[in-house]
Write a sequence for this structure.
């Protein structure tokens, strides 16, 4: 870190440094993680889950997810400084030091794991720890700089939240939980590849071998379309497994038609604006799918 930035960081009030650390926990991204984990809890048991255990599981998962995001920011701070999308993050700006980030991440993650172990169950704690290591270490350190298939392999960590929620309520991993895992696993590549398409020049400057950089936008868009078709098919698994009913099927069908249209148009007539729109729709899609699961169960 440059001397000027280091000096500025040392004189930054503690309140602002804690706020900077919170920003590095990527609260907007992690809100979706926590949301899907909570839906996994709600679907795992008849009626409403025990309030105390659900609260402990939600807070524990949120803390560990935030710690993983902060470690990701720590590892990628030099890359973040070269990209317009991320150069405004606290570490590149010098609002918090790497040592502070590491210490706070370990404290936050440790607290989350302790809470899961003591107030939920050991299975959820170990699965959450594995998810943390998969994202913060395997994906961030190994896969992302090494292969254009990084998001496909690394997406397994991002697909774990509903499994964590299910395990928190049942102390087991059921087949329906694995179906929810598969939905997010197949959703992650087309979601992230749309972003990588319109940010491809930034990823190229940062030296990251994202698929649009290494193999071009047309092939990436074809992959987006193929993965979206697979996702649409897999999205009906909750209904076939008895986890949801006709309301979910109707709502997810509407969502699938929208996503398939986004992917088709992107493949046939690419533009950065369409890629941005596809990226935004992917967020609506996943949020809507899990909301549909909850509504179907509620009604």
């Amino acid at each position: 870190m440059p001397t000027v930035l280091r000096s500025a960081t040392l004189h930054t009030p503690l309140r602002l440094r804690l706020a900077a650390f919170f920003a590095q926990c990527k609260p907007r991204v992690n809100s979706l993680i926590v949301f899907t984990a909570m839906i996994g809890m709600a679907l795992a048991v008849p009626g409403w889950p025990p309030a105390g255990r659900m609260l402990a599981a939600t807070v524990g998962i949120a803390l560990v997810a935030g710690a993983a995001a902060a470690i990701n920011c720590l590892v990628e701070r030099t890359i973040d400084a070269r990209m317009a999308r991320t150069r405004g993050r606290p570490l590149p700006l010098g609002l918090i030091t790497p040592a502070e980030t590491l210490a706070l991440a370990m404290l936050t993650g440790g607290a989350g794991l302790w809470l899961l172990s003591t107030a939920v169950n050991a299975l959820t704690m170990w699965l959450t720890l594995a998810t943390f290591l998969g994202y913060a270490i395997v994906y961030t350190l190994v896969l992302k700089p090494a292969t254009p298939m990084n998001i496909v392999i690394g997406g397994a960590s991002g697909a774990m939240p509903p499994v964590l929620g299910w395990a928190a309520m049942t102390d087991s991993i059921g087949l329906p939980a694995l179906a929810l895992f598969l939905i997010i696993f197949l959703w992650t590549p087309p979601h992230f590849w749309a972003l990588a398409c319109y940010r491809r020049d930034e990823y190229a400057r940062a030296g990251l071998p994202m698929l649009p950089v290494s193999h071009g936008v047309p092939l990436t868009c074809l992959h987006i379309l193929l993965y979206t078709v697979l996702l649409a098919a897999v999205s009906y698994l909750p209904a076939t497994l008895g986890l949801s009913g006709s309301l979910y099927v109707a709502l997810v069908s509407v969502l699938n038609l929208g996503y398939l249209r986004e992917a088709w148009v992107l493949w046939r007539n690419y533009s950065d604006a369409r890629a941005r729109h596809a990226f935004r729709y992917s967020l609506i899609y996943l949020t809507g799918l899990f909301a549909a699961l909850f509504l179907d169960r509620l009604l």
